[in-house]
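for the record, two folds in this file. i put them one after another cuz i was lazy. first one right below, seq on top, structure tokens after. the second one comes after a little note so u can tell where it starts
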Amino acid sequence: MSIIHSRLVTFLLITPLISLVTACATNTPSHVKESADFCEVHNPERWMKVWQNGDAESTERYYQNLASDIKTTIKTEEFRNIFKEQLEIPPNEYRKEYSNDYVYYRKKISELLGEEWDCEYLKYHYVKEFEEE
């Protein structure tokens, strides 16, 4: 009787853990693709076509296209939360913790993926003076 009880308890404890691991494993390929697509949206070869003249009109058009491409790229709620959380941080606190948006995205996407993530293209957009950290 105690062996059956022991196995039942073990089963009840392990089942949610397996479900959690399976859920995370299911999302990981999506997050990897999203992070690669998010990086590629910032590729200078893409934005140079739009931002040819450097005038106010082409700059505005570029940022509208960038925002639209980012919105199209992000598919999962977990990835969307990175942007939602960024907006919820008061500006003074944000600048104390993150020297720029590049640092924020690198940290948050790395946390989401569970491994170090970096995108050289982001530096062109979010870093005025890049300092290696």
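(here's the note) second protein begins now
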Amino acid sequence: MSRKKNISIKIPNGRTFQTKDNYFYGAENYRKPNVKGYYRRVVVVDSNRNNELAVVKLTMSNKGIPIKTYRQGKSKIKPFVETRDFRNKPIKRNKYFLENKSSYDFNKNEISQIKRILFKTSKNSKSNRMRVRKLKGRK
């Protein structure tokens, strides 16, 4: 793969991670009651050369936007791009964000559908685009 593109070589778009909600910026004090372990699944929608990730949370609630082709349409996304962890550092693969098996990955069509939702049709499309631009080091 060429190094000209500003994307991670180690972590492809579509890879899923396990984490907790309180590991995201702004949710440090959040504790989900009666739940142990890593319960929140997130999917990588973009990255940069330093393996810093832009992720989207997956949910099972009715408020999410369904991705019909992934896991028989049971998984839905929350239309917010997250790029910072609870320490206000870029999200990376570490002890707070554990990588899932590749069998849980999203394919390219599903990722392009998610990006279309995030950057064009959601209410927060402008802030989502700005977060990814900042992650990539663009103005």
